[in-house]
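Hi R.,

Here's the chain you asked about this morning:
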Amino acid sequence: MSQTFVIRMVAWSSLILYLVCDFFIFTGPLQRELRSMFPTQEDVIAHARAEGICAKVFNAPIYRSQVDRRVQENLWRTGRDANKVSATEMNMLRWGALNTMIDEHIMRIKVRVNVEQAPVPEEEVDAEVLRFEKRFSSAAELNKAMAAQGIESRKELRFRLAARLQQEKYVMQKIQPHLEVSEQVARQWYHDHKSELTMPERRRIRHVFLAALDHPSDEAKATLAIHLDALKAGTSTIEKLAENFSDDAQSKRQGGDLGWMSRQRIPADFAAHAFTLPINSPALVKTKLGWHIIEVTGIKKPSLLPFETMHAEIMAAISDSRREAAIKQYRHQLRLLNHEKVEIFKTVLEYDLP
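And the predicted structure, written out as tokens:
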């Protein structure tokens, strides 16, 4: 047995022993390097938890802090206090916010790849930046709002607004065929919604009013009863009574005239009297607000506006109702087509970070 062979055997044995120790006994540099190149699912989850990453879309991270900020914004818009939201509901809100952010991220990538299909002129971006800035009374308020949304500079603000305009234009191009409304569909919609399109009965009403806060009830009733007798005797007019005695500061300048009113526009106890009186028959009535002399001077029966008059509004209403559904469906399709590019770390999303 030659000396060279012995040396080779010792070297190979040492190498094998080192590899065995590196991979199976210790966590050596080779094992760490391989695990970084080909991480296990446990490694990926551990890394996500350590970094606060609750999802990846095309390998780009969405952080738990971003999701929480989106939830806070959504609660703020609806006037709710996050401290009064239960843990169960908060978890649901996080899931909702995350799914929305994933859809938005996929959409941004889709638009970026197809940027030439939805060009946005610089003039449109300028106008959008100006509209955004006008929402704030000072530069300090603007900077505070930008910081709250993670926008570090005016350049980044412009970039984000331009991206949003581009995304909106691209999406509209994709869903436009679903928004077109035929004449037949519009007429059918008109037929199906006649009850909603029918103008309700309206009455022109005038009154003389004594407020319960300023007058004892019996005294107010007695005073108006005397005035009502004068009206019926023809020795006074409701215009003069309203001008001289009414507590309704707005209508007294118009001789007590309230204009054309529907039941929905006036208090129920007032409407109960006003919509049962015949024309030109003043009456003394009581409501929660006080005592009134009410007179109906005109009645318009319920009426349905012609289709031709409502045509433009009907077309717009149908198109608007379809737009939201079409956008939702388009996002859903993109999500299905790119589901392999989305990775969600449930434990990071649902539990408090260390």
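The radius of gyration is 36 Å.

Let me know if you need anything else.
M.
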